Backbone:
């Protein structure tokens, strides 16, 4: 057999974007985000320390430059608002897998629970709030206030007993439905 002499008619098209270009876009966005957060932090710190108006004006200019750079990097006004309004720890929590988002609030104080649960995955917010609410309502209920009108005391209705079954009854589930395994820490999550 000899060499192939037929021309090649099909030449694959080049990809629309290259991974290196995507990486550069991501780096530009990260730089713009960092620049914006640093400028805002510096301005807040200076205002809190009672800086003079010239310093605050200069820092306002730095925030303006950083916001223009963020827009040039591709941030939308909504993304821009999220950068400014969401603390970094809450942002990291919102990106965790569902299992970790379930484990962390179980050990959190009430204040931390409320801070993080609003940023959890949509489908676990309600069950976690119910679980946390169940822990809070274990305290005895307050006594009712007696009324001034005469009332007849009627006995409380008793629930109907279920019909006897030939199947053996199983024991009730344990009070803690989650496994006793240690939840991940942020250092564990950084390794992923």
Residues:
């Amino acid at each position: 057999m000899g060499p192939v002499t037929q021309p090649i008619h099909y030449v694959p098209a080049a990809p629309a974007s290259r991974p290196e270009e995507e990486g550069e876009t991501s780096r530009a966005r990260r730089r713009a985000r960092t620049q914006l957060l640093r400028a805002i932090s510096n301005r807040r710190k200076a205002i809190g320390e009672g800086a003079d108006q010239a310093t605050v004006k200069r820092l306002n200019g730095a925030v303006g430059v950083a916001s223009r750079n963020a827009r040039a990097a591709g941030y939308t006004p909504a993304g821009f608002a999220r950068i400014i309004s969401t603390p970094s720890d809450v942002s990291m929590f919102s990106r965790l897998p569902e299992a970790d988002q379930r484990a962390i609030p179980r050990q959190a104080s009430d204040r931390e629970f409320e801070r993080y649960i609003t940023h959890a995955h949509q489908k676990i917010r309600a069950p976690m709030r119910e679980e946390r609410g169940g822990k809070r309502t274990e305290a005895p209920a307050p006594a009712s206030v007696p009324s001034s009108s005469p009332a007849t005391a009627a006995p409380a209705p008793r629930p109907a007993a279920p019909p006897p079954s030939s199947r053996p009854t199983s024991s009730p589930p344990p009070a803690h439905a989650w496994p006793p395994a240690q939840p991940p820490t942020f250092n564990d999550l950084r390794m992923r």
Notes: The radius of gyration is 30 Å.
